[in-house]
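Issue: ligand-bound run for 3-hydroxy-3-methylglutaryl-coenzyme A - logging full I/O for the record.

Environment: standard queue, default settings, no custom constraints.

Inputs:
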Amino acid sequence: MAVGIDRMNFYSPQYALDLVALAQARGDEPDKYTIGIGQSVQAVVPNYEDVVTMGVNAAEGLLTAADRAAIDMVIFATESGIDNSKSGAVYAQRLLGLSANCRTIEMKQACYAGTYGLMQAKDYVTLHPDKKVLVIAADIARYGLATAGEVTQGAGAVAMIVAADPALAVIADDSVYRSEDVADFWRPIDSDTAIVDGHLSTDVYKRFFAEIWQSYKGQSGHALNDFAGFAFHLPYTKMGKKALDQILPEASADQQVRLQEQLVAAQAYSRLVGNLYTGSVYLSLLSLLKEGRQTAGDRLGIFSFGSGAEAELYSLTLVPGYEQALADIDIRTDLAQRRLVTVAEYETYFQSQLFDSSQNQRTQAPLDQPGCYFLGWQAGQRLYQNNQ
Ligand code: HMG
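Outputs:
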């Protein structure tokens, strides 16, 4: 029986920063950011948004009444979670009005955890074809003001419904994965910013992709010419090019051109949002599906990477009519409608996050607007309101 992604949706905050302005403020060449790293705009997170609100906002745009009745598991993947004990999934289950007869769990392994969640969902639905699973991958990539990683920040959430006979894409049983304890990126439990050896992390990503690709070919029997495109985890868009360039000579000349064009399509939305850690590879998939050239029956490669490090490569096959499953989504327009903030405003937003749970503080949540909001702290608890 075919199991896969039935529908998916993306959410990112309404504020964004032009990276040419950031380069100028930091005394860097704008071309370094826009060409060398491949990022043009970055999501900016106000203090009333976090992984729970972004995840709920992504899922709200997706759930029908039938979905709400059939979902009996919520898997919430994040590495910027809001509690060391309670999962983002249990908040999301309440805020989305899902049944109490539901399993709720949070997953963590850097940027990789969304893929683990998706694979768990696939296995569960394969055993229970009448059920659906909601997978949310939500993160805030936060390195610190005026750090080397600053240009690769970003934020957002992807929500996916996994079901039997999916409307969008069937997940193949061809995963190849790899884990290795590497000190390239981590975030101590008392730190709100990541610690990263950026160049090492880039090298680990490239090496994992090259090694996994060799194993994948041997195990699956597929060659590069069998793929209509790849979605990559994109901490910055140049990273996808660095990975793909390693294996491109294996393809025919025409296929090399096609895969490069498809890579540009797979990078388009990440270039305008930045890194969203767990959700990044699935934003790349959405970008490829909306901006690329593929047809039903095509095979797409998905390369998921998380520092620390763990990676997985697998493929999806697009089902007939898959475009309809994405017909209501217009991410390009949504991103164009964000308000661009100045560097000074961005720095204020960055510093106004309420990390101190000991203070009863309120955020500036615009409660007259639709959306899910973090209201603030009360007696050490995070308060939320979903105004959908
Ligand atoms: P950096 O040292 O600021 O930049 O770090 P650089 O000097 O390496 O330059 C970057 C590129 O810009 C280079 O190109 C330069 O040549 C080029 P490359 O050699 O890489 O092809 N350049 C220019 N191009 C045009 N015009 C110019 C110009 N000047 C320079 N004038 C780095 C960059 C990405 C390392 C940094 O921003 C960083 O540390 N970011 C965070 C870490 C990261 O994103 N790592 C990626 C792989 S790890 C991963 O994906 C996991 C992660 O998502 C976390 C998780 O799993 O949870 C991060």
